Hints:
- The protein is 40% helix and 16% strand.
- It is α+β, with helices and mostly antiparallel strands and 189 residues long.
- A 5-stranded mixed β-sheet has the order 1-2-5-4-3.
- Helix 4 (137-147) packs across helix 5 (149-165).
- The chain is globular, with a radius of gyration of 16 Å.
Amino acid sequence: MKKSLYNLTKEDWNTLFPIELVDHNPTWKDIYAKEKERILETVGKSSIVRIEHFGSTSIPNIKAKPYIDIIIEIPKALLFDKKIIKELESIGYSYFLVPKRDIFDAYMSFGKGYSFTEKKEQIYHIHMCPKDNLMWEQIKFRDYLIENTSRAKEYEKLKLKLATKHKNDRGGYVLSKTDFINETLALIK
Length: 189
């Protein structure tokens, strides 16, 4: 059976795509800008309310997994829209439903660039949801860290520690950052 993102087990994900942090690359903003244009050309500006680069690659001078995280606001009526899913699949994205959990409403997620060969590709993650989804708090987090370099460096230090501890545990790595993110969001309020 040919490997695809859809038939990977949790163990496969952790083994094939371990947590690896690299130095900040100033070209990430340009890589994002090109992908943003590709998305807008494919999906159309009438379906997209707002599109933003977030995650650690959007924060200057801190180490990051070299993935470009993109959050896209769409009208509530287009959530889980099959046409949008097909359009993004046409430019190489795989679609994943993120189910409702805890305080997060369900939303659409897409991944692109995961290679099963030695050849590395640029990895992109899209989180697509209406403006009332809690995922949008990530923009406040990003903006705060851009403005507060000492807090950004604390985040980098935590990420380095967690990347060592959770190198082959993507879920553990993400969940272990939650307290820091929540504490930072509390500072904003």
